[in-house]
């Protein structure tokens, strides 16, 4: 497993450029990601972030928080991966899917998935909210009562996961004394939620016959950006997560998204670089686009890469937090 979320600028498998005013810049793939470095798409709010694989039968989300590291004032340390979230859907792995689209909308800071399987339209949305300090993952199905899934959380440092009342969480302490914790709250519309164990005997949550599933994720450490307290916060990481999640639960997905988009676009929309958007086909994949670029320069692609770099910086660091580094966040 990689130990850090990295935002890789030029090695994503599929990139596409949108020409409409509603979606000027976006990355697009026509299949799920299988490689963390070159294919998974990143989201982030400057403090927490994730790499989204967007698998059809199993969703894998690797997440991180920007203060989790193994060093201290005297020793050089390394940033650490925080954990992984898995959503395993109750569907036939051999059943084909069509019209798959995996899009990272740079204009809104919104990751969207859509595909069709077994006569159903499946849609997913992912975003990392800076105003509300949570990551939001939404899964919806066109046929009511057809969403069945198993939700599992995993600590990258081996602590056991606890499950209770629709929540999954873990907490631990690194060798340098840094405390950390992550929590996922599961909201189910039109179905049931129960605690069970998976084939490895680990505690998980089961969703049955749902119309929609919403996951809210928060991760935190006891780091504080002040030497007066020896870089330690008085608030426990679990309490930080509970505070953020309780507030986020009051809003609902659409309001959380609206608050996120308003915050994000206030930064992203500061700059517009127009290098003839009409050069690009909105359905063209990056493989084809990069191959074409080898034969003839495409300035509009260069504009997209520039804006993607701005998206990554906005996602990696915000005012008052830690600076972005070569590993992203």
Automatic annotation (TrEMBL):
<keyword id="KW-0732">Signal</keyword>
<protein>
    <submittedName>
        <fullName>Glycoside hydrolase family 95 protein</fullName>
    </submittedName>
</protein>
<feature type="domain" description="Glycosyl hydrolase family 95 N-terminal">
    <location>
        <begin position="76"/>
        <end position="225"/>
    </location>
</feature>
<feature type="signal peptide">
    <location>
        <begin position="1"/>
        <end position="22"/>
    </location>
</feature>
<dbReference type="Pfam" id="PF22124">
    <property type="entry name" value="Glyco_hydro_95_cat"/>
</dbReference>
<keyword id="KW-0378">Hydrolase</keyword>
<dbReference type="GO" id="GO:0004560">
    <property type="term" value="F:alpha-L-fucosidase activity"/>
</dbReference>
<feature type="domain" description="Glycosyl hydrolase family 95 N-terminal">
    <location>
        <begin position="30"/>
        <end position="75"/>
    </location>
</feature>
<dbReference type="InterPro" id="IPR008928">
    <property type="entry name" value="6-hairpin_glycosidase_sf"/>
</dbReference>
<dbReference type="InterPro" id="IPR027414">
    <property type="entry name" value="GH95_N_dom"/>
</dbReference>
<dbReference type="Pfam" id="PF14498">
    <property type="entry name" value="Glyco_hyd_65N_2"/>
</dbReference>
<feature type="domain" description="Glycosyl hydrolase family 95 catalytic">
    <location>
        <begin position="253"/>
        <end position="329"/>
    </location>
</feature>
<dbReference type="InterPro" id="IPR054363">
    <property type="entry name" value="GH95_cat"/>
</dbReference>
<dbReference type="GO" id="GO:0005975">
    <property type="term" value="P:carbohydrate metabolic process"/>
</dbReference>
């Amino acid at each position: 497993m990689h130990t850090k979320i990295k935002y890789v600028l030029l090695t994503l498998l599929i990139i596409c450029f949108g020409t409409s005013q509603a979606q000027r810049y976006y990355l697009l793939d026509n299949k799920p990601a299988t490689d963390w470095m070159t294919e998974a798409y990143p989201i982030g709010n400057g403090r927490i972030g994730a790499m989204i694989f967007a698998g059809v039968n199993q969703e894998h989300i690797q997440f991180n928080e920007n203060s989790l590291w193994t060093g201290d004032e005297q020793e050089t340390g390394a940033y650490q991966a925080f954990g992984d979230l898995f959503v395993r859907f109750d569907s036939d792995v051999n059943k084909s899917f069509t019209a798959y689209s995996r899009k990272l909308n740079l204009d809104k800071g919104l990751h969207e998935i859509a595909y069709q399987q077994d006569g159903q339209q499946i849609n997913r949305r992912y975003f990392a909210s800076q105003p509300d300090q949570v990551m939001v993952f939404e899964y919806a199905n066109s046929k009511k009562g057809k969403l069945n899934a198993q939700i599992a959380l995993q600590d990258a440092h081996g602590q056991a996961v606890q499950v209770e009342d629709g929540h999954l969480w873990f907490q631990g302490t690194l060798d340098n004394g840094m405390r950390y914790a992550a929590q996922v709250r599961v909201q189910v519309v039109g179905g049931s939620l129960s605690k069970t164990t998976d084939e490895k005997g680990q505690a998980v949550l089961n969703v049955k016959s749902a119309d929609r599933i919403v996951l809210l994720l928060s991760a935190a450490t006891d780091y504080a950006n002040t030497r007066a307290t020896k870089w330690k916060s008085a608030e426990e990481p679990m309490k930080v997560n509970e505070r953020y999640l309780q507030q986020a639960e009051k809003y609902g997905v659409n309001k959380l998204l609206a608050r996120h988009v308003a915050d994000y676009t206030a930064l992203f929309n500061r700059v517009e670089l127009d290098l003839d958007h009409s050069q690009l086909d909105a359905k063209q994949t990056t493989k084809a686009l990069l191959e074409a670029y080898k034969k003839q320069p495409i300035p509009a692609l260069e504009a997209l890469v520039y804006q993607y770099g701005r998206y990554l910086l906005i996602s990696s660091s915000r005012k008052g937090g830690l600076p972005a580094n070569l590993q992203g966040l």
